[in-house]
Design a protein that fits this description.
Blueprint: H1 5-12, H2 16-23, H3 31-43, H4 50-57, E1 63-68, H5 73-88, E2 93-98, H6 104-111, E3 118-122, H7 130-135, E4 142-146, E5 154-159, H8 160-172, E6 179-183, H9 194-205, E7 215-217, H10 223-236, E8 241-243, H11 247-259, E9 269-274, E10 287-290, H12 293-309, E11 317-321, E12 323-325, H13 335-342
Parallel strand pairs: 1-2, 1-3, 3-4, 4-5, 5-11, 6-7, 6-8, 8-9, 9-10
Antiparallel strand pairs: 10-12
Helix pairs in contact: 1-2, 1-3, 2-3, 5-12, 8-9, 8-13, 10-11
Length: 346
Amino acid sequence: MNLNLQELSRKAGVSIASVSRALNGKPGVSEKKRALIQKMAKDFGYIANPQASALRSKTRSGWTLLTSSSPSQITQHRNQHFLKTLREMAFSIQVITVAPKENFKTTLERIWQDPPAVLLVHGLQGVSSRELEVKGRDPRTTVISIDRNSKIFDSVCIDRAEGVRTATRLMLTGGVTSPAFLTSQSHSTLLNDERNQGIIKAYKDLGLKHKETDFHPIKEATSEMGKEVTLELLQSRFVDAIFCYSDQVGYGVLRALYEKGIKVPDEVRVIGFDDLPHSAMTTPSLTTVSQPVQEMVDIAISLALSRQNNPEGDLQTVLLPTRLIPRESCPIRDHLHREKTFLHKN
C-alpha cells in the first residue's frame, strides 16, 4: 500500500506540516513522533507528491499568497502561520498584496504572467471574485479560498456563530443584564453577520429576547474605535458587559474602562474575538473566541495538495469551529456557570 503525504498524515493522526517536518528533518515535532512517522512512511511505502517535489526544487513556480496590503490583525496572524508552515515544508512561497483602490484585474494579470502552482487567496474583503473565477480556471494553478466560501474553488472557512453563541451564554448566564455588542452591522441587517447570528441564537436558547439597541455598529475593527465607542456608551447608558467584534477592538475597550476607573470584570465584563497572541497578556487577560489558525493553515495546504492529486474531484469546503477561551475579563464563576455556558440547550 503506497501512501501520499495527505494519506500518511491521516494515518499518523498529525497535520501535513508535521509529517513534512518529520520527513525533512525540520524542527517542530518531537523525536518520538518523528521516529513513528518515518517508520510509517517506510512501512507503507510513502510516495512524495511529484508536484510538491517540483515546488521544493523550484523547477516551476511555487505557492503564492494573495492578500491585502492593509490586513486586519487576525489576517496578519494567519499569514504569518502560512509563511512559517510552508517554509518549514520547504515550499517556495511569495506574497502578493492588493491595495484597497488597486485594480484587481491588473494584479491577477501580473500573477498569471508566470502562473503559480498554488494560489492561496486570503483576506481580500470587498474585492469582487468574478475576475479571479475566470483566471482561476487555468489548470496550471490550484486556487484555494481562505475564509471566504467559493462555488468555484476549494475553500476553508470559519464558523464564527457557534463560538460567539457560547460567549454570549457566558455573559447572560453569569448575571449580565445590560450588555453591549460592538458589531459590524446596523439593526436592520443583524443576521448578515455571523457573530450577530451567534448572539441572537444564545438569546433564543435561553428563552430571552435581544434588544436591537444593544447592538452598536462600529466603523472599523481597531483599538481606537473600541475606545471611542466605549467612552460614548458610558455617557449614554448603563452597561455591565461588552462583546467586541475583535480582540483589537477589545484592547481599546479595556483601555477606556481603565481610564474611567471602571473595574473589569467586577463592574463590566469584556469578551473579544480572534484570540490574538497579545490577548492572554492584557491586564486583565482578555476572554475571547479563538479561531483555529494553525488548523486552517494545515487544511488549506491539504486541500491544495489533494486538488493537485485529483484535479477533477468534487469541490471541497471545510468549515472550522471557533471556541470560547475564558480568561480574567469575563471569567467562569463556578461549576454551574460553566454548565450553563457550554450546554447546547437551556
